[in-house]
Structure prediction request, 316 residues.
Amino acid sequence: MASSIGKVVILGTGGTIAGTAASAQDNVGYSAAQLGVAQLVAAVPALAEGSIEAEQVAQIDSKDMTLAVLHRLAQRVQAHLDRPEVAGVVVTHGTDTLEETAFVLHRVLHAHKPVVLTAAMRPATSLQADGPQNLLDAVSVARAAGQGGVVAVIGARVWAGAELRKVHSYRLDAFSAGDAGPLGWIEEGVLRAVRMWPAAQGLGVDALPATDEAAPWVAVVTSHAGARGREVDALVAAGVRGLVVAATGNGTLHMQLESALRRAQDAGVQVLRASRCAFGGIVGDSTSGWPSAGALTPAQARIELVLRLHGHTAAP
Ligand code: SIN
Prediction:
C-alpha cells in the first residue's frame, strides 16, 4: 500500500497533456482535453509508488480559459494545500494560457507548500508524448521541493510561475522565464535547484473575480507601425475600464496610440504598459509617466490590471 506521507494531489484541467489524435504521427490535428486526470495518472505506473490523489477541476482547451475556471482552480488548490497530510499540489493544464494561470496562482494563493503546474506540447497519443514524463517530474518536484511557491515543470526544467512565458508554438521546449532563467532542473527524479523560489503573494482567492462577467473589463491593445488609436477610442466608448498596451521595445508607444491612451486616461481608464518583446520586459524608469508592468507579458499584465481594478493595488 502506498504511504500516506507526502501525499500529492493532482488537479486536472485539460490541455494537450490530456489530448488525443486519431494517428500517433499527428502532433497538430488533435483534440485537447479528452482524457481524465485519473487516466493521466494511470499512464504513469511510477506514480503508484507514492501517495497520490486526483481530482478533475475542469476539462478544457486552455485557449478557452475563464475566470470562473481560474477561480475554482485557485479555491481547490488552496483547499488541498491547507490539508496537513498534503505535501504539494500538481495541476495539469494546457500550454497556451499556462503563463496566465501560473501568474494568477502566484498572486492569489497562500502557497506555503509547492504548487507545480505541468503541461505537454504533444497529445497523449503521440509518438513523442511528453506528458507522462512531465507529470512524473512535476510530482517529484512537489515531493522534493521543501518550500512553497508556484512553479511550472516542463521539459525537465523548473520555472517560476510569475516569470513563465510560452515562447514557441510547436517545439517540446516551448517555455522560458526570459533573462531570469530556470529555478532548476529535475533529473531522474532528483531536483537540482539553482536559485530560491519566489514566494507566492497570497492576496487570497477572493482577490480574483469569480466570473468574467463580474470582472472589470480590461483589453489589450498593441503599439505597431501605422497605429491610429481608433480601437482605443472605440473601447472607451464601449465601457472598457482598463487597457494593457503591448508596447514596442522598452515600453515605447506610437504617438497616435499614445494620444488615444491619454484620452482614455482622462476618461478614467487605467493604462498599464507591457513590452511586446519576448525577453527583457520594460527596464528602468520611463519619463513617459505611463505605469509599467516590468517583466510581465501583456497577458499577465492584463491579469494584474484585473486584480488591481477588482480591489487590489499592490505592485507585482
Ligand atoms: C491548450 O492549451 O489547452 C492546448 C494546447 C496545449 O496544451 O499545448
